[in-house]
Design brief:
By secondary structure, the protein is an alpha/beta fold. The chain has 14 helices and 11 strands. The protein folds into 2 domains: about 170 residues, no CATH class; about 130 residues, Rossmann fold (3-Layer(aba) Sandwich). Helix 2 packs across helix 3 and helix 12 packs parallel to helix 13. The chain binds iron/sulfur cluster. Iron/sulfur cluster binds next to helix 3, helix 4 and helix 13.
Length: about 350
């Protein structure tokens, strides 16, 4: 079959937030023009919500809205992968697993769906996933596909290197796509720091997260996310709190929270999840238990399409305020203790002096 697909549409939702640098490098190397849907707006959400049943979680409504956006842009081929499992028995939720089926059933419009499957539990590897993707756009040349996989990893690894050095998500993404590597060398110290446990598709979509990261930074809070934690550190952290990795996005949630919980680098943890999400409710419950044991403050913010910004900010400000008061009280106690220690040291010195001069009775 001759390649006829010259453009591929990628919805700016779900796996885009974890894998887009790879997708971009891979499809560009295959010679395709990559077309992204526009950034999420309320219109995207409303459009997606029209097609799916009302109790579907927000990220799936958003995803559907992005597919519609690509169709409005005239995309004839859209990449909608079915990511079943990312490791042996490390699964995605049923909605992400069945994404092609959901879209096929709710959007009744003619377009080519590029729908590779990744299922490591069933021995369908990431290489197989890439081969399926290339074959679906009419490319069968093994060398070309091999080169595209390596180009995909090159862009992805640059992105990862930048985020792990502290470069923000959007800056790292922009630079990786341009083939530019920048690193953050100065780490600004702020009065408070928090770690956010959340799916990338909730946290880095500014409309879904209601700009959570920017709001915290405006409050002078340093923010750590899963992008600052290496895969190995997240896996070790899950292990260190005695939990197991079951969900595909567990490293972004349990792994990130456990990492910052055990290294005591943050003053609090924020869990951000979509209303009605089963996997997230289990992971947040697990982490809440460990936070309670360790005395680490945690707030759970849930979001849906009706979440109002005012209430969201109020809860956030109250949490930050509480962290600040807690930190102040710890610092005050520590400084009292230091003064006390200094007094004790002085007394010991005086006593030692008296012993040396023979004046102690
Ligand atoms: S993991 Fe939760 S938020 Fe994500 S798609 Fe599944 S149900 Fe929705």
């Amino acid at each position: 079959m001759k390649s006829e697909i010259k453009k591929i549409g990628i919805p700016r939702a779900i796996s885009y937030y974890n894998n887009y640098p790879f997708y971009y490098g891979f499809f560009s190397s295959l010679g395709l023009e990559v077309v992204l849907s526009d950034k999420t707006t309320t219109k995207t959400i409303n459009e997606g919500a029209k097609y799916v049943v009302s109790d579907t979680c927000l990220p799936i409504k958003v995803y559907t809205g992005h597919v519609m956006n690509l169709l409005h842009k005239g995309c004839e081929a859209i990449f909608i992968p079915s990511i079943q499992s990312t490791g042996y028995k490390i699964n995605n939720c049923s909605k992400i697993r069945g994404l092609p089926e959901i879209i096929r059933n709710v959007i009744n419009k003619p377009f080519i769906m590029v729908e590779p499957t990744l299922d490591k539990t069933e021995n369908i590897s990431f290489k197989d996933f890439c081969i399926q993707s290339a074959n679906s756009v009419g490319i069968f040349d093994k060398d070309k596909i091999k080169q595209a996989i390596s180009d995909g990893w090159r862009v992805y690894n640059m992105f990862l290197e930048m985020t792990q050095s502290g470069v923000s998500y959007s800056e790292a993404l922009d630079n990786a796509i341009k083939g530019k590597l920048v690193k953050k060398t100065i780490d600004i110290v702020k009065p408070l720091s928090v770690a956010i446990m959340a799916h990338g598709y909730n946290l880095f979509d500014d409309r879904i997260s209601l700009n959570l990261i920017k709001k915290l930074e405006k409050m002078d809070v340093k923010v750590y996310t899963s992008l600052n934690v290496s895969r190995q550190d997240a896996i070790s952290a899950i292990d260190s709190i005695g939990e197991i990795q079951y969900w595909a996005n567990e490293l972004e949630l349990t792994g990130t929270a456990a990492h910052y919980l055990t290294n005591e680098k943050v003053d609090g943890i924020i869990a951000l999840s979509a209303f009605g999400c089963g996997p997230d409710s289990l992971m947040v419950e697990e982490i809440s238990y460990h936070c309670k044991e360790a005395g680490m403050p945690l707030i759970h913010l849930t979001i849906d399409e009706h979440t109002g910004e005012a209430g969201f900010i109020t809860r956030l400000e109250a949490f930050v305020d509480m962290l600040l008061r807690k930190k102040r009280s710890i610092l005050t106690k520590q400084s009292d203790k230091t003064e006390e220690d200094a007094n004790i040291e002085n007394t010991v010195e005086i006593k030692e002096e008296r012993i040396l001069t023979g004046s102690v009775k």
